[in-house]
Design brief:
Blueprint (H helix, E strand, L loop, with lengths): L2 H16 L3 H17 L1 H9 L2 H13 L7 H11 L8 H6 L2 H11 L4 H17 L2 H7 L4 H10 L4 H16 L6 H9 L1 H7 L20 H15 L7 H8 L2 H11 L3 H15 L2 H4 L15
């Protein structure tokens, strides 16, 4: 594979977009994916000669018209883009457009597992690169619900972690205000976050992380829970109530004991102090579940 071949296929993809030739476009994108998988050299050549931006532009172009008719080419583009991370520059601009993000939310709400996985991985790149895109994403009907579902009904560790990253940016964005925070709490995100923390009973003799292999999701879980509780302004303190009733205090204390990164440790410590203020009123945990746990609080 050469630079000439990359430039030629870039031109053909652009032409396919203009003529709305989804079949031709899909086949061309599939050819790029095949090249990427053949060697790292091919991948570097594809990146160096602008194919990433061309693919992102094609995604935006095909997402502007009837999505039902362009599903196959849009899926192929997303699948190929996941092999080209990290995304940058023009590619993120095209993927962060209104039409592109509406298409991604539409994909997230679909039942196809591979499609949803690839979509949330690309969405993570888009949202993480610019917080200004958070508001655009939040305005799309079903955006919050689709991410919640990905966490509640996990596809794979990678997709779940990507979902946590997107949620984290949504609730930490200054421009997003409190809307997503309250909605996530009302939907039951607190319980789901705690389910990703260290399993209390097994961890007394082990030190597993979320999904046994990836502790990044644990760190994001703590960060999200910390943000939800710190920003809980409602009189009924929904976030605190739900967290305490499903064992947040014990699981966080256990996480602190088995060890975590310094930043996470600081957030866990602060969360424990916040939750400790309300334990007498709302906590509902069988003490036998944590009988071997040290309790300094």
């Amino acid at each position: 594979m050469s630079s000439v071949e990359v430039l030629e296929i870039n031109s053909k993809i652009t032409a396919a977009c203009k003529s709305e030739d989804q079949t031709g476009g899909r086949d061309l994108v599939a050819k790029i994916k095949k090249w990427i998988k053949e060697s790292e050299r091919n991948k570097r050549c594809i990146v160096d000669y602008g194919a990433v931006s061309v693919l992102a532009a094609a995604f935006e172009s095909f997402s502007k018209t009837c999505l039902d008719e362009h599903v196959s080419v849009l899926e192929e583009i997303l699948s190929t883009l996941t092999l080209l991370f990290p995304l940058a520059g023009e590619a993120l601009t095209y993927l962060g457009s209104a039409s592109s993000m509406h298409c991604m939310v539409w994909f997230l709400k679909s039942g196809d597992l591979s499609r949803r996985r690839n979509t949330v991985l690309v969405l993570r790149e888009v949202i993480s690169s610019d917080h200004r895109r958070v508001n655009m994403f939040l305005e799309i009907e079903g955006a919050i619900e689709s991410l919640y579902t990905l966490i509640k009904e996990p596809i794979c560790p990678t997709a779940t972690e990507a979902s946590f990253v997107v949620v984290y940016h949504m609730i930490t964005s200054a421009s997003a205000a409190d809307k997503p925070i309250q909605k996530f709490v009302d939907m039951g995100l607190v319980s789901l976050l705690l389910e990703t923390l260290v399993d209390a009973q097994r961890s007394l003799c082990e030190k597993p992380w979320v999904f046994s292999t990836d502790f990044a999701a644990t760190e994001f879980s703590v960060s999200i829970l910390w943000k939800l509780c710190k920003n809980e302004k409602r009189e009924e303190k929904t976030a605190f109530v739900e967290a305490l009733q499903v064992g947040a205090f014990q699981k966080l204390l256990l996480l602190l004991q088995v060890g975590c990164a310094d930043k996470t440790k600081g957030q866990v410590t602060e969360l424990l102090k916040l939750l400790n203020l309300h334990r007498a009123r709302w906590e509902c945990i069988d003490s036998m579940d944590f009988k071997s746990l040290k309790r300094p609080f």
